[in-house]
Amino acid sequence: MHELPQQLANGLALGALYGLIAIGYTMVYGIVQLINFAHGEIFMIGGFGALTTYTALPSGTSLLVAIPLMILGGALASVAVATAAERFAYRPLRSAPRLAPLITAIGLSIALQQLVWQFYPDAKKAVTFPEFTGKAFQITDNLAIQRSDAFVLALAPLCMLALGVFVSKSRSGRAMQATAQDPDTAKLMGINTDRIIVMAFAIGAAFAAVAAVAYGVDKGQINFEMGFILGLKAFTAAVLGGIGNIYGAMVGGVVLGLAEALSIAYIEEIPGMQQLGGGAWANVWAFVLLIVVLLVRPQGLLGQRVTDRA
Amino acid sequence: MRHRSLLVLTTVITTGALTLTACGSRDEAKTGDNAGGGNKTVVVIGVDAPLTGSLSALGQGIKNSVDLAAKTANKNNEVPGVEFKVEALDDQAVPASGQANATKLVGNKDVLGVVGPLNSGVAQQMQGVFASANLAQVSPANTNPSLSQGDNWGKGEYKRPFKTYFRTAATDVVQGKFAAQYLFKDAGKKKVFVVDDKQTYGAGLAGIFSEEFKKLGGEVVGTDHVTVKETDFSSTADKVKASGADSVYFGGQYPEGGLLSDQIKKTGAAIPLFGGDGIYDPAFISASAEANDGDLATSIGAPVEKLDTAKKFIEDYKAGGYKDPYAAYGGYSYDAGWAIVQAVKAVVAANGGKVPTDARAKVVEALGKVSFDGVTGKVSFDEYGDTTNKQLTVYKVEGGKWIDVKSDTFNQ
């Protein structure tokens, strides 16, 4: 168990990343009950937006200066695409049966991937992303935190805090809560629900861009299909934490990340389970956990049992 | 409870999507643009490779190199009265797509030979389709031994399962053993951690490597597996570090290999990652900054850039104005395409200058007998359809480039 702290740190960093992406799923679902499967691609576009910003900066710019600009550039790209998707792909289908926007989302996801594959220079394979240089922070003898992990571990709570304050304190945030509860009544009370829905998409996209920059500086590369698996994992995190609940998304992400890291490291040390451990089985254990949680708490870890609207 | 059922449905779709992981358009680029040509008979060389997706860098190189072989044959009037064309299909490295493509190629009666695929797992699904149609297939990149030597090759029982299957690439037996010997004897590493990606190619190669490494007296201090298309291997990387290994062997492809190497180095374990031809690609290096100096890869044949026979290929490829580089398998793909051209030539010559009606069967027969000096050296096939060229090279990452460190001919 010597490397337990290290594995916990790995899981936490991975989970924070899942959580940041999961916000986008959970906010959109909370307000329009749409599972935006194109959100993984919004994340990917955030990454490419950030990379484009970086290449536009004079070479030799310190990463500390570049990163805020990259987040800004990435968010600009992802928010633009997400709001355009909302306006042109989802809004026309808002009163259609729920399956129609779901299929649209899947189609949009494939289309966005192919667009980047086709038109972004050299994006047919992984493209290099600027990385933090320098050694990991050696906390104790058996715990070293990578700079990139420290970055996401610091950024994720900050973002969550900002979002929490925004939703509970600001006027728009409260309008958002009202729209989530009952869009028709909210509209009658004079809330511009279309604006609120666009805002939910935009916030989710901005968080995805933050996640994409964190992902890029950690892995040192991004590619056009990176949003697919990460999107699915983040969606899983959102469901695990209780879809519709923003804190649930982060909690679900962290639980999922920890489950993956610990199952890779320790399942195979349980006598008789040697064959069922290691990286090959990490996803299996993560989904076993999801099923168990949903059996006990169908609404997810932090979800509220809501009566469905007719 | 409409929400709940929607959620269930979505979960089902999600699972389906995870299994398929096939998100790409089908790119049916027909690249035989020199149509016309009087009353020449058209012979189509099929190509099956991943033209989209994360392995498209390799697939595009294969497609272009075969295209170049066909164009060269047309320009030199290599087979009088025959016009070669290329039909390239995208398999996205998915076995089921490969099978569908194989069926499609079989359906086109002008197709007399197929170059591809890249992945051994895809080849498994294609072999049967081609065999029942008597259509010759030459893979430039498959390295799994059972494709040509039968499932029991490990027990010393060699039986060729499909007589239509040929390859210009050497098998993993050759490659895995060569790698183990290099790592143990030349590099002096004694404790290795073995990781594979659970695919036909990766798991097979890692198994052969481990066996030979143990036989030589080395120790395998741990094993783990990664999942294709995943990107976070930090937990596996920490296991590697904790195991005290002095090297890592990775059976798999460059997208996962590059990330794994990077993440192992980040834990502070300064040990090289060694892999097969699947990681021998510039993208392995570019994908993980400069952190992977010292990493090693084996690849088939001598370095293309160093062979005299390859100079013309490299020049022609440049002159051809292809958008993507020829990548790791360009030379082998050109040779595979050229082998089919030579087989067609022999068949046409034997039939008085015309393409016979049972051309497919005859091309298969003729392929077994071809022998010429290709881009990668002498090209000919043994009784299993394997290349007789058993030359291998170890490459090392130095200063962000693959540098060849040792070339040798392997004797079993």
What does this structure look like?
The complex is a heterodimer of chains A (310) and B (412). Chain A has one domain (19-228, 242-250). In chain A, 69% of the residues lie in helices and 4% in strands. Chain A has helices at residues 4-32, 39-56, 63-90, 99-119, 147-169, 171-181, 183-188, 193-219, 226-241, 246-266, 282-296, and strands at residues 127-128, 137-140, 143-145, 221-222. In chain A, helix 1 runs parallel beside helix 5, helix 1 packs antiparallel against helix 10 and helix 5 crosses helix 6 (171-181). Chain B has 2 domains: 41-170 and 305-381, Rossmann fold (3-Layer(aba) Sandwich); 173-300 and 392-409, 3-Layer(aba) Sandwich (Rossmann fold). In chain B, strands 7-6-8-9-10-13-14 form a 7-stranded mixed beta sheet, sandwiched between helices. In chain B, strand 8, helix 9 and strand 9 form a beta-alpha-beta unit. The chains are: A mainly alpha (310), B alpha/beta (412). Chains A and B meet through helix 1, helix 4, strand 1, helix 9 and helix 10 of A and helix 1, helix 2, strand 7, helix 8 and helix 9 of B.
Main features:
heterodimer; A: 310 residues; two-stranded antiparallel ribbon; 11 helices; 4 strands; globular; B: 412 residues; alpha/beta; Rossmann fold; seven-stranded mixed sheet; five-stranded parallel sheet
In short:
The complex is a heterodimer of chains A (310) and B (412). By secondary structure, chain A is mainly α.
